[in-house]
Write a structure and sequence with these properties.
By secondary structure, the chain is α+β, with helices and mostly antiparallel strands. The chain contains twelve helices and six strands. The protein folds into two domains: 215 residues, no CATH class; 79 residues, no CATH class. Strands 1-2-3-4-5-6 form a six-stranded antiparallel sheet, covered by helices on one side. A hairpin with a 4-residue loop joins strand 4 and strand 5. It is elongated and about 80 Å long.
C-alpha cells in the first residue's frame, strides 16, 4: 500500500471510529431523555439501564455504520480537496479508482462487518434487549402500547399451530385476515383455518366468515373435509396477551433461520405473510451492500476538483442527503414488495441497484 493510501485509510478509520462513538452517545442520550419519566416511575436501577444499552449496542452500530462510513470518507477527501491534494494526485496520473481505493476497501470491510454483526449478534441482542425492557423498563398496562396495531403477525402457537394474522388490534382485541395452519408430529398439515375476522369474547375467540379444512389423511386431497361457518367459537388456547408476547420478530432471526422458517410454511396458503417474510429475508442480504453503494455515490462528488474549497459542513450535508435519499428509496421498495407490486428480491435490491446506477453515471461523467 502506498504512503498516500495508508495516510487516507488511517484518516478514514479515525474519523469513522469518532463518528460511531458520537452516534452511539447521541442515541443513548436522546433515548434516555425521551424515556426519563418512564425510568423514574419504574425506578429502574442504573445497572439495568447500563445492561440494556450495552445489549442494544450491536443494533445501534448496525444502523449507524453506513452513514458513519460515508461521512468519514467524505470528510477525509473533502479535507484533502481543500488542501489541493486531489489536484496533485490527478496531475500525477491517478484515476478515480486509484484515489478512492482506501475508501472503497474500507467500505467493503464495513459492509462485511455489518453482515457479520447482523447474522451473529443483532438477533440475540434484539431478543435480550426486548426482554430487559419488557421486564424492567416498560410500564405494565401502558396505554400507548395497548393502542398500537400489529400488522403481519406471525407466531407458533399451542398444539403445533402456526398463526398468520394480517392485523391484530390490542385495543379492542380483534383479528383480521386470519390463517391458522395445524400440523401433526411429522410436520404434515392436518388442518387449515381461514377467517375474515376474529374477536376475543373474554373467554374464547369467536371467528366470523370462517372456513375450516380438516385433513384426515395428510397428503391425500380427497380426505379433506371443508366446513364453513358465519360465526364460530374456536378451540384456541392463546389469549390476546399471548398474541402480544409470542409474535414473531424478524429482527431476532438471522438469514438461515428465516429461510428455514419460510421453507417450512411456504405451502401453507398464507401467501401475504410468506411474501412479507421473503422481503425481510432479502433485505437482510441487501442492506449491508447498500453501505458500499452510497459510498460510491458520495465519493465522486467529494473528489470533484471544482469543489476543493468545500467546507466540512458541506460534506456532512452531502452525506445526510445521500443517506436520506437511500433510506427513503429503500423504504419505498420494501413497501412495494410487501404490497405485492414487486417481487421480494427486486423490492429489497431496488435501492442498491438504483444508487449503483447513479454512482456509475457520476464516476463516468465526472472523471
Amino acid at each position: 500500500m502506498r504512503i498516500v493510501e495508508r495516510y487516507n485509510l488511517i484518516a478514514i478509520i479515525q474519523a469513522f471510529l469518532a463518528i460511531i462513538l458520537i452516534f452511539a452517545f447521541l442515541y443513548v442520550l436522546i433515548d434516555v431523555a425521551s424515556n426519563l419519566d418512564e425510568f423514574i416511575k419504574q425506578k429502574v436501577p442504573l445497572h439495568i439501564l447500563a445492561q440494556y444499552y450495552l445489549t442494544y449496542l450491536p443494533i445501534i452500530l448496525s444502523q449507524t455504520m453506513p452513514i458513519a462510513c460515508l461521512i468519514a470518507c467524505l470528510l477525509t477527501f473533502s479535507n484533502a480537496n481543500g488542501h489541493n491534494e486531489i489536484i496533485v494526485l490527478r496531475a500525477g496520473g491517478q484515476s478515480f479508482w486509484d484515489i478512492a481505493r482506501p475508501a472503497i476497501v474500507f467500505g467493503i470491510l464495513v459492509s462485511a462487518m455489518m453482515f457479520w454483526m447482523n447474522e451473529s449478534f443483532v438477533p440475540q441482542a434484539t431478543m435480550t434487549s426486548e426482554s430487559i425492557r419488557d421486564e424492567n423498563i416498560v410500564i405494565k398496562g401502558d396505554a400507548k402500547r395497548k393502542r398500537e396495531e400489529i400488522k403481519n403477525l406471525t407466531f407458533y402457537g399451542l398444539n403445533n399451530r402456526l398463526f398468520f394474522v394480517d392485523l391484530f388490534s390490542p385495543a379492542d382485541e380483534t383479528l383480521k385476515g386470519i390463517t391458522i395452519i395445524g400440523q401433526n408430529a411429522d410436520q404434515q398439515i392436518r388442518e387449515k383455518i381461514v377467517a375474515l375476522e376474529g374477536k376475543w369474547t373474554g373467554i374464547a375467540w369467536k371467528f366470523y366468515k370462517c372456513q375450516m379444512t380438516t385433513v384426515k389423511e395428510p397428503g391425500n386431497p380427497r380426505s379433506e373435509e371443508v366446513r364453513y361457518y358465519d360465526e364460530k367459537l374456536m378451540d384456541i388456547k392463546e389469549t390476546p396477551k399471548d398474541f402480544m408476547r409470542q409474535r414473531l420478530n424478524v429482527s431476532s432471526m438471522n438469514i438461515k433461520q428465516l429461510a428455514s422458517y419460510i421453507r417450512r410454511f411456504e405451502h401453507s396458503g398464507a401467501k401475504k405473510a410468506i411474501n412479507n417474510l421473503r422481503v425481510d429475508m432479502h433485505q437482510k442480504i441487501a442492506f449491508p451492500f447498500g453501505n458500499l453503494v452510497i459510498l460510491l455515490v458520495g465519493l465522486p462528488l467529494a473528489l470533484m476538483t471544482g469543489r476543493r474549497k468545500a467546507l466540512t459542513f458541506m460534506s456532512l450535508g452531502l452525506a445526510v442527503m445521500i443517506g436520506f435519499a437511500f433510506y427513503v428509496t429503500n423504504a419505498v421498495g420494501l413497501a412495494f414488495g410487501k404490497g405485492g407490486l414487486l417481487a421480494p428480491i427486486f423490492s429489497a435490491w431496488m435501492a442498491p441497484a438504483l444508487f449503483l446506477c447513479v454512482a456509475v453515471y457520476l464516476i463516468r461523467t465526472r472523471f
